[in-house]
Amino acid sequence: MAAFLWRSRPGTLCRGVLPWLLTLFGLLAPWPAVWAQSVAFINPGRSDETYWTSVSVVMRDAARSLGMALEIHYAERDHLRPLEIAREIAERPRAQRPDFVVFTNDYSVAPGVLRTLETAGIHSFMAFSGVPASLRNQTGLPRERYRYWLGSLEPRAEDAGYLTAKALIVAARASRKGMGHDGRLHMLAIAGDRSTPSSVDRNAGMRRAVAEAGDVVLSQEVYGEWRRDRAAQQARVLFQRYPEVRLVWAGNDEMAFGAMDAWRERGGVPGSDAFFSGINSSPAAMAARRSGEISALAGGHQLAGAWSLVLLYDYAHGQDFASEGLELVRPMFALLDASLIERYEQKIGTRQTALDFRRYSKVHNPRLTRYTFELERLLR
Q: What are the backbone dihedrals phi and psi of residue 92, each rounded to the nearest 5 degrees, phi first?
């Protein structure tokens, strides 16, 4: 009977009431020991990719502190691999399937993954990137066409593009070395890809900052596919094509490093005679920001997977995040200056102690009225 009730459709009352009743009558030991939820995360990145491995590390912290079982599967940047992983999970014997599957909509895999998990009766949740308007006719809304699709949580990605582009422009203005002969700042943009919602939104934020500036020329925008080597190749060509360019906005840290490599090959000094921005809080990126080689850096979004586990934990314990919405887009990014980098490294980077995510759970903190997922709050 308990297993049947646990597999009930989303939003049923029994999930929240049954554990309480069993505890009341002494039939259930402490909840996490017997009722621990199992989660599979389909990580779209490579298993040696700094950003996506850091996502996994923090998710393990969240799972450990919440008493959840977590398994992680890397897609290794293979566009078809998330669908294959979802099928492998769905084909397991029922007793070996996770209670939840968390995945990203990188490369527009959402419709296929949702169909596969729905057929198997496995609850799904999107993190990092949700469903754009172009795919809505294939997915519908959470808990409608796909009733096991519980919802999504995205960092407000436009913030990252806007904050870094604005800070990059400010840094170049202050130096006066970024000005072209026309008295304007000439900038290149190396974006991630054309389809991932987070990439599209970061680019939109960058363009908004450029439009507001009034003295910036966006010479060209290209797509580096998140790769350092590709960004370096593109930058080599673009620096020749646009000799007055002194600003490079990049959609992640790896592409920023690639463009910096290309600038050094020309005898330039990043942070001195050209200015670069990046997104991500990798150790290398934070070191480059501290040294001044990177002039603007934003991070915090790598925690979206951990925050998703908080939402799923509360959902499983009868506190449905639907009270705040099913497709949540929340501010998570912060500009990483020297003081924030120091706090980040002390609390997250050293890994001396695992982060405790229980204090962000409404189940553990009944007085919480709203989920707050900003990086600066975590670092207090």
A: -65, 155
Query: How many angstroms separate the CA atoms of 146 and 122, rounded?
Result: 11
Quick one: which of 233, 204, 239 has its CA closest to 220?
239
Task: Round to whole Å and give the CA distance between 72 and 303.
Answer: 15
Residues 6+ apart with CB under 8 A from 238: 188, 219, 220, 222, 245
**Distance separating the N- and C-terminal Cα atoms of the chain:** 44
DSSP symbols for 32-84:
HHHH--EEEEEE-S-TT-HHHHHHHHHHHHHHHHHT-EEEEEE-TT-TTHHHH
> Which helix H or strand E contains 223, and what residues bound it?
strand 216-223
Rounded to a whole number of angstroms, the CA Rg of the chain reads 22
The model's pLDDT over 251-263, given as tens digits with 9 standing for 90+, comes to 999 999 999 999 9
d(CA 61, CA 269): 38
pTM tops 0.85: no
Residues with Cβ within 8 Å of 139's Cβ and at least 6 positions away in sequence, in order, are 110, 111, 114, 131, 145, 146, 149
Strands (E), 226-357: 247-250, 275-279, 296-299, 327-330, 334-335
Residue 263: strand, helix, or coil: helix
Half-sphere exposure in the Cβ direction for 159 (13 Å, CA): 17
Q: Which residues contact 144 (CB under 8 A, 6 or more apart)?
A: none
Chain segment 132-188, per-residue pLDDT in tens:
888 999 999 999 999 999 999 999 999 999 999 999 999 999 987 878 889 999 999
The pLDDT of 341-349, averaged and rounded, is: 81
Nearest of 275, 278, 268 to residue 341 by alpha carbon: 278
